Amino acid sequence: MSKKINVGTLISGGGTNLQAIIDACQSNLIDANILFTGSDNPGVKGLERAQKAGIDTFVVDYAGIIRSCKKGINDADLPADFNLEEILSKQKLVEHIASKEQIVFFLKTRAIAERKLLDIILAYDMDLLVLAGFMRVLTPYFIDRINTEPGIYKIMNIHPALLPSFPGTDGYGDTFRYGCKIGGCTVHYIDYGEDTGPIIGQKAFAIEDNDTLDDIKKKGLEKEWELFPQCIQKFADSQNKKSRNK
Ligand code: GRF
After folding, report:
1. How many C-beta atoms lie closer than 10 Å to residue 77's C-beta?
2. Could you identify the atom of ligand 1 that is nearest to the CA of residue 46?
3. Is 133 close to ligand 1, i.e. is its CB under 6 Å away?
4. pTM summary value
5. Which candidate in 46, 95, 127, 246 could, as Cys together with 5 as Cys, close a disulfide (CB 3.0–4.6 Å)?
């Protein structure tokens, strides 16, 4: 029998992808077990879905952290192991769109929030971290503390477009406004860029001439709910293969 992998999840909203993963775990469609669901946003429906399934939940309130950082950041607020020069040299998130001062503020505020996430997440024995509609970019500070084995990716994300087209936060909106005749979704690993990591799986759907943005979102989400569990199973299969070959 295949060993189950331990999956952590992060969300920001409704959590329909999370629900698809919960259902796939509960019906043994995939060899995975969800350890926790964290959110950057208090009170969202996805947290309720997790609690209903008996999954540990927590919130790191990014908006509150960013508000308090705007009043000023002292060195003492930063994680003890935060190295600005190192993170600056690795990050590929905002280099073309912001001044150095804005990038530094962004990286510092995110590191403060990310340290809070790590303090909770690293207490679990986790194989894979799944971003199921987590609408915050993760910086190298966080990524390096999850991806600790060189060349091994452990953070998986779902993106609402066929990458490399339409990275960013509004994949279905961008697909619609461009007038595409095919839309889709992508599951990929997280690297230091925005939606640039290695692709694990994709699904596409046809867009009819009279489809609205809502139609596209509906078609896309249905594909996401199939694709995400399949990609988690792909990861589980590769872990099981590795442990058999040891
Ligand atoms: C999905 O469309 C996902 O691709 C995007 O955010 C949405 C989350 O939906 N990143 P839900 O919270 O899983 O319902």
Report:
1. 16
2. 12
3. yes
4. 0.96
5. 127
